[in-house]
Structures are given as structure tokens and as C-alpha cells.
Amino acid sequence: MPRWSKDRVALVGDACSAVSLMAGQGASLGMAGGFVLADQLARAGSVDTAVAAYERMWRPVVEEKRR
Description:
By secondary structure, the chain is mainly α. The chain has helices spanning about 15, 25-45, 45-65; strands spanning about 5, 10. The longest helix has 20 residues, at about 45-65. The protein is elongated and about 40 Å long. It starts with a strand and ends with a helix.
């Protein structure tokens, strides 16, 4: 998917970070991604800003694990 978020809606867990069963990190990525999103929601001034920051920070981590 070109984006995991739009406005105030974001994909989390396996919806955006599902990796191969061989990688064995699906649950860890799902929980950590949820933590990153929660942290950004606590820090940001708006939900839109938090969702954008979450994707900007977390997407490179997930893409690296997929490779």
C-alpha cells in the first residue's frame, strides 16, 4: 500500500506490518507499532499529526523487516 493512513485513520498491526511467517516477527511488529502510535498520539497536538508521524517513523522499520 502506498500509505497506511489517511486523515485520522491508520492501519496498525498485521493490517500494515504483516511479514512472512519465516521472519517470525509479526506479533512483535504489531505490538511495537501500536506502542509507536500510542506514543505519537500522546505527544502530538492533533490526531492527524500523530498518525502522520507514526507512519513516517514506523514504516521504514517494517519495510526493513520485510526485506
